[in-house]
């Protein structure tokens, strides 16, 4: 017969109610998420992870490359049955990602349990009755009602598994007595967390410090430290071996540190994420093509790109130490202030699409205010405070968005339970600390930034609705995308992708004139201009507006003189308006800049043949075949010359 303690009997009913609430919430929220545009259409990081998972599962064949970021997460995606790849139209029907979402919901639940266990460890023994109950269970409630944690559990992002592993590592650190197995498990947890986000490596010194600090309670602490390091090494070794084998020398498990350091400290840095690295995020997230062109190299590897961006970041950091120090302080503050900083995930959009999220009401500012008060007068929170400090400082080396702050939320939640009791007791120091934290939690001076990010979140959602509209032929979805894009460009008109998205949607709706007007307006307000000019050039070519097309082509080549597509278009345009010699000069430029591109050789040969210079035309085609053997266009045109 199982004897249930009286304390547990008194909690049985509340726990059953809470469990029922959690179950109902996730059943409802999961169904709504799978039907939402955010659950159906992945973008940016989400697409990257799904592509890598497809390579792991064998759904697609990719060229083996070192891991750019988060090597563990694509394996989790594939193991959860979501490794089938991204559909060609980028629109899921919802269910292929269900296994991944269920895995992440389990991580969310595991984190909830660990928060309760952590609270039990740090609550002073002298607290009894309602005070003890509040300190033990308020953290669980606060975390359970924190909306971003639930959103990230349903997105194709690594935050929820990272949250579980980091909280598990913290729980293992705070134990007064360590067994050998616990030390090994801590090392594994830290290592797996490092494979999700590299900044968690900064927790290793804290973990080793706890071994030494508690050496009196642990025999052979050197053995525990060795086992901890062994566990970490076992976790990260496969990724390190993979990357090092492909790089030809020893490198780390991920190669995005240089990019992130540049984004957080380069000349464009402002504390938030900025799109400072040119390139196709899906196929070239490190900006390798940009670097190759900038440094006149045939190609740039991921390892080289990582080193180049890191060197560039260090250069700017060394030149402007005062600015970097100010940025560091701002990034520390951004992790304390209460505004949720969207990046990939629009919290407002998710809430509108998944109404179940409306019941989750814990504000981040409340966690910070109560959590800071909970740091007062309790030696049991020393390790937790050290982990919090290390994470805040480590993440401030790079940049800040809400999903990066999520790793702090379990700590804030546990401390908030303590802080609430401290304030209830009217501890003077706790009241002072809470007042200071309240001032820090106010997002001072961020009104314009918040409006701009809200507009970018609308463009984020518009992009997804546009994909749904194209995939399903839905005019309603395309019109919804148009509405969101128009709202976005009113506030964030300096961002050219929003104008490009709006023009594309207007074209899909059969309104090319309005699309061209949108591109022209974008040219007066947005940066960079090159993408807008190329889109407008394509529009003018489609409409056979030769004069306007010539204007745009020349403007593009002012910015990018070696752009192959534009050089070819200019050759065609000049030829059509009777400027054959100028067309031939640009065709030769195309051939000179891009000798492996058959189009330059073809353009030169065709123009020479049209002017009756047949032998020169033959030589141009033969020259092209040396660079592009068996090219059908070159062979066909060569056969036409008498």
Termini distance? 102 Å
- Major sheet summary line: none
CATH architecture of the domain at 445-560: Alpha Horseshoe
**Overall residue-averaged pLDDT value:** 92
CATH topology of the domain at 445-560: Serine Threonine Protein Phosphatase 5, Tetratricopeptide repeat
Low-confidence stretches: none
- Based on Cα principal axes, name the global outline: elongated
Any key phrases for this structure?
642 residues, Serine Threonine Protein Phosphatase 5, Tetratricopeptide repeat
Structure description:
There is one protein chain. The chain is mainly alpha-helical and 642 residues long. Among the domains are: 257-319, no CATH class; 445-560, Serine Threonine Protein Phosphatase 5, Tetratricopeptide repeat, CATH 1.25.40.10; 578-642, Tetratricopeptide repeat domain (Serine Threonine Protein Phosphatase 5, Tetratricopeptide repeat, Alpha Horseshoe). The protein is 69% helix and 0% strand. The protein contains 32 helices and no strands. The protein has helices spanning 6-35, 37-40, 45-57, 72-79, 98-122, 129-144, 147-154, 159-173, 180-194, 203-213, 221-247, 257-265, 288-294, 302-319, 321-334, 347-353, 364-374, 382-395, 402-405, 409-424, 428-441, 447-472, 475-491, 496-508, 512-525, 530-542, 546-559, 564-576, 580-593, 598-610, 614-627, 632-640. Helix 23 (475-491) packs antiparallel against helix 24. The mean pLDDT is 92.
């Amino acid at each position: 017969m199982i004897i249930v303690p009286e304390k547990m009997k008194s909690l049985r009913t509340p726990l059953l109610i809470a469990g029922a609430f959690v179950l109902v919430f996730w059943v409802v929220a999961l169904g709504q998420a799978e039907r939402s545009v955010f659950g159906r259409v992945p973008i940016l990081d989400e697409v990257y992870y799904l592509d890598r998972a497809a390579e792991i599962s064998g759904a697609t064949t990719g060229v083996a490359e070192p891991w750019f970021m988060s090597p563990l997460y694509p394996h989790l995606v594939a193991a959860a049955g979501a490794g089938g790849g991204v559909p060609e139209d980028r629109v899921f029907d919802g269910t292929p990602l269900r296994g991944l979402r269920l895995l992440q919901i389990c991580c969310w639940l595991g984190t909830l349990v660990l928060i309760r266990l952590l609270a039990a460890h740090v609550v002073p023994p002298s607290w009894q009755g309602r005070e003890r109950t509040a300190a033990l269970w308020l953290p669980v409630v606060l975390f359970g009602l924190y909306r971003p944690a639930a959103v990230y559990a349903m997105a194709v992002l690594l935050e929820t598994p990272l949250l579980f592993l980091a909280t598990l590592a913290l729980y293992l650190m705070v134990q007064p007595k360590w067994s050998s197995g616990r030390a090994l498990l801590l090392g594994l947890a830290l290592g797996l967390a490092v494979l999700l986000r590299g900044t968690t490596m900064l927790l290793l010194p804290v973990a080793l410090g706890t071994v030494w600090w508690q050496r009196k309670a642990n025999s052979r602490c050197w053995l525990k430290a060795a086992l901890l390091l062994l566990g970490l090494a076992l976790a990260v070794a496969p990724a390190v071996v993979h990357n090092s084998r492909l790089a030809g020398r020893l490198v780390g498990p991920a190669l995005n540190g240089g990019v992130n350091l540049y984004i957080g400290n380069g000349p464009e840095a402002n504390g938030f994420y900025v799109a400072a690295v040119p390139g196709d995020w899906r196929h070239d997230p490190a900006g390798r093509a940009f670097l190759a062109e900038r440094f006149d190299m045939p190609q740039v590897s991921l390892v080289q790109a990582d080193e180049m961006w890191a060197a560039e970041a260090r250069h700017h950091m060394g030149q402007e130490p005062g600015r970097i120090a100010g940025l560091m302080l701002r990034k520390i503050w951004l992790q304390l202030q209460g505004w949720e900083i969207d990046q990939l995930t629009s919290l407002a959009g998710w809430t509108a699409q998944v109404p179940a999220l409306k019941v989750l009401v814990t504000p981040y500012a409340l966690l910070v205010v109560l959590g800071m008060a909970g740091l007062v007068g309790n030696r049991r929170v020393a390790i937790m405070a050290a982990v919090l400090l290390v994470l805040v400082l480590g993440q401030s080396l790079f940049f800040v968005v809400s999903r990066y702050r999520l790793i702090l939320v379990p700590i804030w939640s546990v401390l908030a339970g303590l802080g609430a009791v401290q304030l209830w007791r009217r501890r003077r120091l706790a009241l002072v600390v809470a007042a200071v934290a309240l001032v820090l939690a106010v997002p001072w001076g961020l009104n314009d930034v918040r409006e701009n990010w809200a507009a970018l979140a609308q463009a984020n959602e518009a992009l997804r609705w546009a994909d749904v509209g194209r995939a399903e032929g839905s005019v309603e979805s395309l019109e919804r995308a148009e509405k969101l894009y128009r709202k976005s460009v009113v506030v964030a008109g300096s961002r050219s992708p929003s104008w490009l998205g709006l023009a594309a949607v207007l074209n899909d709706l059969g309104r090319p004139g309005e699309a061209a007007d949108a591109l022209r307006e974008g040219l007066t307000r947005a940066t960079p201009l090159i993408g807008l000019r190329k889109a407008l050039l394509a529009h003018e070519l489609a409409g056979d507006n030769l004069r306007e097309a010539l204007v745009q082509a020349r403007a593009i080549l002012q910015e990018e003189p070696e752009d192959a597509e534009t050089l070819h278009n200019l050759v065609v345009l000049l030829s059509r308006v009777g400027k054959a010699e100028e067309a031939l000069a640009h065709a030769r430029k195309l051939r000179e800049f891009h000798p492996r591109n058959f189009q330059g050789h073809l353009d030169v040969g065709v123009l020479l043949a049209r002017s009756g210079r047949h032998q020169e035309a033959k030589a141009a085609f033969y020259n092209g075949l040396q660079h592009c053997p068996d090219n059908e266009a070159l062979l066909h045109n060569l056969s036409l010359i008498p």
